[in-house]
């Protein structure tokens, strides 16, 4: 029996994935769908209305200096690295961000967020701790997983899982839809696909062909 893990039921139960679901059912595959906290998976960086869920993590983080916060790690994973993409997806729509030249340097992005949007920064980092702990416990329950299939890989809850699986034998496939809305691209990697696909490398592209 082959064991698949789907951490994202928001996307993998859409009608466009019907053929994939039918294929899984027709083969000797055991698929595990993680449905817990679905309401937290599509907040896209705006955690203000669910702040009470992260008060313990938030209180811990707000006591740290800027340098301590930037270097803060959980399970040896730097929190800001995990939350940066989702945090930016929220902040970039705000005037103080879309009217500015944004550095590609992690620390420069962090400093701007710390100085101008500290509340949003702390909440995204708090959510990161929450998901790291959640997946750490969930992986203990999900025995003998062979492959994990993640949609997009840009959001905190999927990036947290990817980082935890990076040093395991479990394979990770990230899937993203094309602009057609009907076609999907799978790639085996531990990071997000958007603007980051390995298909840009000629040797990888040739291998796929």
Unreliable stretches (pLDDT < 50, length at least 5) are none
Content-based structural category: alpha/beta
Helix amount: 40-55%
The whole-number mean of residue pLDDT values reads 87
Spatial strand arrangement across the major sheet: 2-1-5-6-7
How many strands in all? 7
Strand residues, percent: 5-15%
Question: How does this structure look, described?
Answer:
This protein is an alpha/beta fold. It is built from 10 helices and 7 strands. A 5-stranded mixed beta sheet has the order 2-1-5-6-7, with helices on both faces. A two-stranded antiparallel sheet has the order 3-4. The radius of gyration is 18 Å and the shape is globular.
Quick summary:
The protein is of the alpha/beta class and 209 residues long. It is 45% helix and 15% strand.
List the helices and strands and how they pair.
Blueprint: E1 2-6, H1 9-12, H2 18-26, E2 29-33, H3 55-62, H4 66-70, E3 73-74, E4 77-78, H5 79-91, H6 95-98, H7 106-116, H8 118-141, E5 147-151, H9 156-165, E6 171-177, E7 184-188, H10 202-208
Parallel strand pairs: 1-2, 1-5, 5-6
Antiparallel strand pairs: 3-4, 6-7
Helix pairs in contact: 3-8, 5-8, 5-9, 7-8, 8-9
């Amino acid at each position: 029996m082959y064991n698949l893990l789907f951490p994202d039921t928001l996307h993998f139960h859409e009608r466009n994935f019907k053929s994939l679901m039918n294929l899984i059912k027709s083969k000797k595959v055991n698929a595990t769908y993680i449905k817990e906290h679905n309401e937290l998976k599509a907040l896209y960086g705006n955690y203000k209305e669910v702040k009470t869920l992260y008060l313990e993590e938030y209180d811990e983080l707000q006591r740290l200096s800027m340098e301590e916060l930037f270097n803060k790690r959980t399970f040896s994973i730097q929190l800001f690295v995990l939350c940066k993409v989702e945090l930016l997806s929220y902040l970039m729509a705000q005037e103080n961000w879309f009217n500015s030249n944004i550095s590609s340097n992690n620390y420069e992005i962090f400093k701007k967020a710390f100085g101008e949007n500290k509340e949003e920064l702390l909440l995204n980092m708090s959510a990161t701790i929450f998901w790291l702990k959640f997946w750490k416990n969930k992986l203990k329950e999900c025995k003998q997983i062979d492959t994990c299939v993640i949609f997009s890989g840009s959001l905190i809850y999927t990036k947290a899982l990817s980082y935890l699986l990076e040093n395991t034998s479990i394979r990770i496939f990230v899937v993203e839809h094309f602009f057609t809305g009907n076609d999907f691209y799978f790639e085996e990697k531990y990071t997000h696909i958007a603007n980051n696909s390995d298909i840009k490398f000629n040797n990888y592209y040739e291998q796929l062909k």
